[in-house]
Amino acid sequence: MRKIDKGPEPQEWKAYRETPGVRYKPIPSLVDALLEEQGFICAYCERSIPHQDAPGEEDHRIDHLSTQMKARQTGDDSDLDYENMVICCPGNIANNKKFYHCDKAKGSKPLTISPLNAGMMGTIRFTVSGRIKSTDPKLDKELNENGLNLNNDFLLQHRQEAWLTVAGKLSEMGWTKKHVTDVLSIWENKHTIKSKDEDHLAYYPFCSMICFMLRKKLANGTLK
Fold first, then answer.
1. Bridge partners for 133 per DSSP
2. Is residue 126 within 8 Å of residue 135, measured between CB atoms?
3. Residue 158 to residue 87: CA distance in whole angstroms
4. Are 87 and 34 spatial neighbours (Cβ–Cβ below 8 Å)?
5. Distance CA 140, CA 135 (A)
6. Closest by Cα among 139, 163, 166 to 44
7. 94 in the Ramachandran plot: left (φ > 0), alpha (ψ -120 to 50) or beta?
8. d(CA 92, CA 89)
9. pTM, whole model, 2 decimals?
């Protein structure tokens, strides 16, 4: 997970939500704005999106940080509030509940953790095995089976593989401060991808783990 900086809501969405009597609907301009804002990665697990976990199924989900159920119960319009939305992967690997993650696992459960909160994101840590954790016990529980299920076997394997690939390349280049700094810059920043035959800026999948591990290497003071 990485800190998400919300931008202005798209004008098409603003016009839609200000229409009297409308209810939440993920219109294309809303989806496009959220994808651009997050660099085409899931707000929670950081898989690339849009991505179908099975042919014919959804390729993204929009999560309301304050749940739609709460909005219906209280009668407020938080389900239309752009500041209340992030975009996620389908979280439906092999249609197996064991692997449900992100919004698919969260469902209507109210969670405290938010990728919009810099303080919360500052508690996030990773291990070489691919595990994501938080130094805050409550948030750590929400990262796991009690919430987002970000440490299921599928995600652990893919995060670990991403790190091993980067570490392997650095072993070939040499673990120098310059090489690590250069690789870190690549993973910290967006790169150009094609989506709908247009150029867009995207982060690499699982970039937060890679950046955490590289910064840790730089901080330990052993690189020359």
1. 125
2. no
3. 20
4. yes
5. 7
6. 139
7. left
8. 8
9. 0.93
Which residue, chain included where needed, has tokens 């954790």? 133
Query: What is the pLDDT, as a whole number, of residue 203?
Result: 98
Q: Helix, strand, coil shares of the chain as percentages rounded to 5?
A: 45, 10, 45
**Measuring CA to CA, which residue among 69, 47, 38 is closest to residue 150?**
47
CA distance 47 to 41: 5
Closest CA to 97 of 43, 145, 44: 145
Residues across the chain: 224
> Could you tell me which residues come within 8 angstroms of residue 215 by beta carbon, excluding any fewer than 6 positions away?
184
Cα 132 to Cα 47: distance, rounded to the nearest angstrom: 14
The domain locations on the chain are: 11-219
Mean pLDDT for each 10-residue chunk of the chain (224 residues)?
Answer: 96 96 95 97 97 90 75 61 96 88 92 96 97 97 94 96 97 95 97 89 98 96 86
